[in-house]
Amino acid sequence: MPTQDPLEQFALQAIDQDGANVSARVAEAFDVSRQAASARLRAFKKKGLIESTGTGRGTRYHLCKLADDKQSYRIEGLSEDLVWDRQCAPVVRNLAENVRDMWHYGITEMVNNAIDHSGSEVVQVHIWRDALRTSAIVADEGEGIFHKIQHSLELLDPREAILELAKGKLTTDPERHSGEGIFFTSKMFDAFVITSRNLYFRHDADEDLDILLEQSVDETGTTVFLQLSNDSGRKMKEVFDEFAAPEEYTFSKTVVPVRLAQHEGEKLVSRSQAKRLTARFEKFEHVVLDFEGVEEIGQAFADEVFRVFQRAHPGTLLAPMNMTEAVEDMVKRARAAARG
């Protein structure tokens, strides 16, 4: 289980941020001598939590890996539960139940996606843990998730696939999948990253931040990275409930980062961009439009979202948030036109 010792927790987090001058920082924070702080650090080394290089004031500390397991599986005949039971469950077995539950969900969903959708012959799973957090990578050698979605949905650009994934309820195989796995996994973990071909998408739950980057390297396949604090207070049921209708067990709400519709160098001005944004919104009762990172929008874009779409789908509530003054003005104009 994660430590309940405040000094130990402080020291581990201090080392994670910067491994230099740790004993001095611990001594100052807890009003103890540097000799006492150094003695505690030696005890943590003996427990296998940390290691060090250098001597004296040049000593630098690092977190040790408490577990590290990397395996490759042939996909034909593979079950995601086998990967979980054999490789991943042992790494997190002594963590709190809520943390184990989220790891069980995330690992099995990501491995299942590789089995059913990637077209790859193999999947690699790497999971490791230190005293503060556990991390995992699930990687395949298939077509690449964003390009597969682009082709399946006949999108113009693979970057649009990231926007569709962020909405949720997206699957290329509706007979066998609900399209909820990636959406909910991204909300459960502290960090969720998908790298596929030349595109990099990251969601940070604590900062509620989404990042989309284009890379110079274009590699085949899909790599998913998951990371979660070992003492996370997040609970899987709370994540599901946040996006469910009251008194129901349906995935009825989504939060859409609007800036994912804004490709590099673009401004959100056209009706075609708005249609790209609102595609499949009608599947939800409540759509939160997060305008963080969007400085302004055009009249046609706002009109298409908040008048045209809203009139056509009155059962879907659109709730904008994090708007600049310029964006809010355009939204108010479009809604006034809709009422008129």
Task: Provide key terms for this protein.
alpha+beta, Heat Shock Protein 90, Arc Repressor Mutant, subunit A, three-stranded parallel sheet, 340 residues, five-stranded antiparallel sheet
CATH class of the largest domain: Alpha Beta
Q: What is the general shape?
A: globular
Looking at CATH, the homologous superfamily of the largest domain is Histidine kinase-like ATPase, C-terminal domain
Secondary structural class: alpha+beta
Averaged pLDDT? 88
Strand content: 15-25%
- Rg result: 23 Å
Question: What report would you give on this structure?
Answer:
It is a single chain. The protein has 340 residues and is of the alpha+beta class. The protein has 3 domains: 6-63, Orthogonal Bundle (Arc Repressor Mutant, subunit A); 67-240, Heat Shock Protein 90, CATH 3.30.565; 243-339, no CATH class. 41% of the residues lie in helices and 24% in strands. It has a 5-stranded antiparallel beta sheet with strand order 3-4-5-7-6. It has a 3-stranded parallel beta sheet with strand order 8-9-10. A hairpin with a 6-residue loop joins strand 1 and strand 2. The longest helix has 21 residues, at 97-117.
